[in-house]
Automatic annotation (TrEMBL):
Keywords: Signal
Signal peptide start-end: 1-19
Entry keyword Flavoprotein: no
Gene Ontology terms for molecular function: peptide transmembrane transporter activity
One BP term from GO: peptide transport
Domain Solute-binding protein family, first and last residues per copy: 83-450
Organism: Leucobacter aridicollis
One GO location term (cellular component): periplasmic space
PANTHER family linked to this entry: PERIPLASMIC BINDING COMPONENT OF ABC TRANSPORTER
Database matches in SUPFAM superfamilies: Periplasmic binding protein-like II
InterPro entries, sorted: Peptide/Ni-bd, SBP_5, SBP_5_dom
Record's protein name: Peptide/nickel transport system substrate-binding protein
């Protein structure tokens, strides 16, 4: 297995609706000596099939493992969490606006020139409700005003967002033909990145080939003429962690993310390239009219009935810890524990009392009902990994102990996302397993406020006016005051049991023979073969 050197340029804000990729931070200690290998091949494991390769229609965290090779963004973030120029040469920001001066030398994979208008059109496409983008109000709000001239773009929002540059600046930029026909890049790519997707075998692998015309790297980054840049990148879809670990140990893989017990086998044998904490266990209660969980006291009771410490241990195979806040991806702008002081604590007797008071009483069979309607929760969760399935079964057992029934609906990632994002889903599903990860809390509010699908991504139709008011206050605050305001807003959400995050896990990325080179952030689009 060849050794590789990394030149990192990552835009670190990629959304993950299911934790499966590592965050930034930390460098590897692998060897960096040796002569560069010309036209080498890099073998890189991803944990699941990314699905459609057009990110405005696909929120999969796995897709970020593809887009970071083939697409570029306006900025990237350095090790201190500060924005640095990529497709943008300079920028100015306020809580309600972003202005970017953009470079004019980037060329699309189809040979067309990337223009300021095309960059602006990326955000127009997302903001247009007619396109049903899963990134609407996450990357850019539907009410945003998006303008451009020949050399710049300006995005102005109605509501302030002190962290707006993270979402907008990190968005993968597609070329105009891709925006005109997203299906054209469903199994291909058309961006300005150094690599181009040439082959996709669903469930098995994706192949990318180097673009030999790539010459517009940011300062300090590699381009296609840099000795050692691989000619071919194989993204191998390997869901089983033990298999990924075995292939790393045997030298058949260069890079892979491994968590749980298998990570222990790699310690001291394979370099840790980076490691970040991601939320891996959490769920929403539907607040759609007519669902039992629309009642705050029912949500609190159901939460009190759960042993969240035990669920954390099971869902993370004993390798995690209790979640503290929404935004855990590096670079973390705010750091606080809003979960511990506010989330309802385990209290089975208190749970039963609350359900009794809410009218959900036990019958002779020990099962609860109200006005003849049995209390049976429809529970949708992702079937990735035995740990999640075990945690879901444990939740059902603990609810069953207080007379609450559960209908399980476990499905693979693609089917799960389609299920919860279907219009009216909140009227059919009571509990949704959801683990969304991002560096700043404001970007995640799209899942907990606003419109339900298809107009928004408030999957569980959450409706908490006090929380909404605190979010508005937080969006109008900056710096340390802003973080305090977000802590208060999150605290209200947890106290009301709107969302229950209970587990986060370290996601280390292991690598064979990799060391840092040049820019210190990890981005596989600029790996040098040595």
């Amino acid at each position: 297995m060849k050794a590789y050197t990394l030149v990192g340029l990552a835009a670190v804000g990629a959304l993950a609706l299911s934790a499966c990729t590592g965050g930034g931070g930390g460098g590897a200690s692998g060897e960096s000596g040796g002569e560069p290998v010309i036209d080498g091949t890099l073998s890189y494991a991803i944990t699941r099939d990314p699905g459609m390769l057009f990110s405005p229609l696909n929120p999969s965290g796995a897709l970020g493992s593809v887009t970071q090779w083939a697409y570029e963004s306006l900025i990237y973030f350095d090790a201190d969490g500060q924005p640095q120029g990529w497709l943008a040469k300079s920028w100015e920001q306020t809580p309600t606006s972003l202005h970017f001066e953009v470079r004019d030398d980037a060329v699309c994979a189809d040979g067309t020139k990337l223009t300021a208008e095309t960059i602006a059109n990326n955000f127009r496409w997302i903001a247009d409700p007619a396109n049903n983008s899963t990134a609407i109000n996450l990357v850019v709000p539907s009410t945003a005003k998006i303008e451009n001239d020949d050399s710049s773009i300006t995005i102005t929002t109605v509501e302030p967002d002190p962290f707006m540059i993270t979402a907008i600046g990190s968005q993968a930029i597609y070329c105009q033909a891709a925006l005109d026909d997203p299906q054209s890049v469903s199994t291909a790519s058309n961006g300005t990145g150094m690599f181009n997707v040439t082959d996709v075998v669903t469930g098995d692998h994706l192949t990318l080939e180097r673009r030999d015309d790539y010459a517009w790297a940011p300062e300090g980054g590699a381009d296609s003429s840099t000795p050692g840049v691989p000619k071919t990148v194989e993204l191998k879809i390997i869901e089983n962690e033990s298999t990924r670990a075995n292939l790393l140990l045997s030298g058949e893989l260069n890079v892979a993310t491994i968590t749980g017990p298998d990570a222990d086998r790699l310690e001291g044998k394979v370099d840790v390239l980076n490691s970040g904490m991601l939320i891996t266990g959490g769920f929403l209660y539907s607040q759609a009219e007519g669902r039992p969980t629309a009642d705050k006291n029912v949500r609190i009771a159901l939460t009190k009935a759960l042993d969240l410490d035990e669920l954390m241990q099971v869902s993370t195979a004993g390798k995690g810890e209790r979640a503290q806040r929404l935004a855990t991806v590096d670079p973390q702008v705010c750091q606080y524990d809003a979960v511990g002081p506010n989330l309802p604590k385990t209290d089975v007797a208190g749970a039963e009392k609350l359900l009794d008071e809410a009218g959900w009483v036990k019958g002779a069979d020990g099962k609860r009902s109200k006005d003849g309607q049995p209390l049976v929760l429809e529970f949708a969760w992702q079937s990735k990994g035995a740990e999640i399935a075990s945690a879901a079964e444990m939740m059902a057992d603990q609810w069953g102990a207080i007379g609450v029934g559960v209908n399980h609906d476990g499905s693979d990632y693609g089917a799960f996302i389609e299920k919860i994002s279907t219009p009216g889903a909140a009227s059919k599903i009571d509990v949704m397993w959801l683990t969304a990860n991002y560096p700043v809390p404001s970007a995640l509010m799209v899942y907990y406020t606003g419109e339900a699908p298809p107009k928004g991504n408030n999957f569980a139709a959450l409706n908490n006016p006090k929380f909404d008011a605190l979010v508005e206050k937080a969006n109008n605050s900056t710096g340390a005051e802003g973080c305090k305001a977000w802590e208060a807003a999150e605290g209200e959400m947890y106290a009301s049991a709107d969302y229950v995050p209970f587990a986060m896990t370290s996601h280390p990325t292991f690598a064979q023979g990799i060391s840092e080179y040049g820019i210190k952030e990890f981005a596989p689009s600029t790996i040098l073969v040595k």
